Amino acid sequence: MTQQNTTTSRTQWHTIREASLLSGLSESTLRYYEQIGIIPPVARDPSSGHRVYSEHDIDVLQTISCMNAIGMSLDAMRQYLGNATEVMSAEAGDVDPLVVRERAKQQVELLDAQALRLAEQLERIKIQQSYCAIKTMYWNAVAEGRADAERILDENSDLFEQVRRCA
Predict the structure, then answer these.
(1) Helical (H) or strand (E) element with 11
(2) Cβ atoms of residues 98 and 59 within 8 Å
(3) What is the CATH number of domain 1-69?
(4) pLDDT tens-digit profile of 19-29?
(5) Where along the chain do its domains lie?
(6) Cα dihedral 23, 25, 31, 35 sign
(7) Cα dihedral angle (33, 37, 38, 42), rounded to 10 degrees?
(8) Which residues, 6 or more positions from 155, have their beta carbon under 8 angstroms from its beta carbon?
(9) Three-state DSSP state, 46
(10) Which one of 43, 114, 159, 161 has the fewest beta carbons within 10 angstroms of its own beta carbon?
(11) 44-50: long-range contacts, CB 8 A cutoff, minimum separation 24
(12) C-beta separation of 19 from 30 below 8 A
């Protein structure tokens, strides 16, 4: 879908289905994110009233899709996108350079906090994998009729407590 804008250039517009395919976010998620303010109100086709997405909108949606994929909270996404919008305004000369630096620092803090949450999640997963490996060793020992099956469990009792704390 293309639409002529007020200048002589043509703007590429995308339907919600196309936006969904290009961003990896479902159509219902796009509507929801608009409803709760993660993304600003989307333009509408004047003849049909359907949502239409610009190339810039698609870029933003792809960023949101990545933030969603890394598990960023909706509040953090909202802050991240607000900061990014302010920085883009600065590029147009509308924002003080000191504000840009502050927003950039906030972006780093948001991303560092998410990276820390992911590292903690990874550590829990590693503990869970170790549990699976020990239990597999135990059940293999039982299946083979080996006398050391109980010893495997006894030697790894501390791991079982760690797994319970992961829940």
Answers:
(1) strand 10-12
(2) no
(3) 1.10.1660.10
(4) 999 999 999 99
(5) 1-69
(6) negative
(7) 70
(8) none
(9) coil
(10) 161
(11) 45/1, 45/3, 45/13, 50/15, 50/16
(12) yes
Residue in the block written with tokens 């006894």:
154
CA dist 117 and 70 (Å) reads 10
pLDDT in tens, 119-156: 999 999 999 999 999 999 999 999 999 999 999 999 99
| DSSP string over 85-105 | HHHHHHHTT-S-HHHHHHHHH
Share of the chain above pLDDT 90, in %: 78
Contact 5, 45 (CB under 8 A): no
Phi and psi torsions of 12, nearest 5°: -85, 125
